[in-house]
Amino acid sequence: MDTDSVLEGYDLNYLTTGDTIQVRQCRSCRIGFTLPTLSPSALPRLYPSSYHAWTVQGGVPGRFKGHLATIFNLASGNSPYCELFFPSVLSIARYGVPGRVLEVGCGTGELLSAFQRSGWEACGIEPNLGAARLARERGLTVDNASLETIDLPMSRFNAIILHHALEHLSEVDRAVSKLAAALRPGGRLYVGVPDFDSKWMDFFGSSWSLLDLPRHRFHFDRDSLKGVVESHNLTTVEVTGMVSIDSVLESLLNLRTRRLLSLGADHATLDNLPRARSFAKQILGPLLTAIFARPLRLLSSRSATSLALIAERQSG
Question: In the chain, where does DSSP find H-type helix?
Fold first, then answer.
């Protein structure tokens, strides 16, 4: 396989390792991949207990955050994200009437709960034991397993969701093949991934937060994402760019982190960064996204921070 070196970086999001991490890109398929390749046994240490998909905020603050997220995403025009995360505004023409939905990497089950309340038969796969337990406490059917190891029934699901999960998997082609087979004819696959062709990555380089090295094993632009999906009896319905300002704010924090590390900062100084990251991700970022997402998308297609692809399984 002919490849080009794209960048070298570090784990600036969670500081789980000080090792140098490399991203290379295949010249033919345009998929980027992270080196060194890690064994399944080495991956858990790269996901700290504070990993964002494994935490849940309940009670009044959690409900308030959910209402704000609905408002902010409607205002930003990130429609695929809105419609999937808030099924009350699901388009029947786009996703079909409620049926069986599977989410790969469902975390604590926030999304699946919303689907279940809207009449879907919801189940999930989550490799983290704590997150899977929290999802089950919501009354969801969730397997504590990885997509690589679990057996899926053939032609079972009306919809399958991978929202920022595909890039974490160790074998992308095999995973998509497995999921395509698990879809019913006419069923739809939703894939959300960071946009590897984003101008924000050009600007921030290895400090771009959505690289999330070394947890993201693969990196996709529009063409490479469509390519891997369409090679498995799936037809792309649409690919939409989404803009999330919180990832930009986190990238600014990563620049700060990189500078502090270069100056030999102690742990007490670095301990303040997660609080700033949480404020950027949960409050300031969504607010700025609501204001600036639409004009940024109009300005340039490469202003997207993430891609949302919807594909349909063909008959036969």
Answer: 59-76, 79-85, 92-95, 110-117, 129-137, 172-182, 199-204, 222-230, 245-262, 267-270, 273-279, 285-299
Contact 157, 183 (CB under 8 A): yes
Section 97-105 average pLDDT: 90
Please tell me the predicted confidence (pLDDT) of residue 50. Answer: 77
> 3-state secondary structure string, 158-190?
EEEEEECCHHHCCCHHHHHHHHHHHEEEEEEEE
Domain ranges of the chain: 3-313
- Whether CATH 3.40.50.150 fits 3-313: yes
133-184 pLDDT per residue, tens: 999 999 999 999 999 999 999 999 999 999 999 999 999 999 999 999 999 9
Strands ordered across the beta sheet of 218-219:
3-9, 21-26, 32-35, 218-219
CA 59/CA 237 separation, integer angstroms: 38
Name the most confidently modeled range: 14-18, 60-64, 261-265.
Answer: 14-18
Asked if 180 and 233 count as a contact pair (C-beta separation under 8 A), the reply is yes
Amino acid at 254: N
Strand 3-9 to strand 21-26: parallel, antiparallel, or no bridges (unpaired)? antiparallel
Residue 124 and residue 103 in contact, taking contact as beta carbons nearer than 8 Å = yes
Cα-flanking dihedrals φ and ψ of residue 54, to 5°?
-105, 5
Which residue's structure tokens are 């025009």? 77
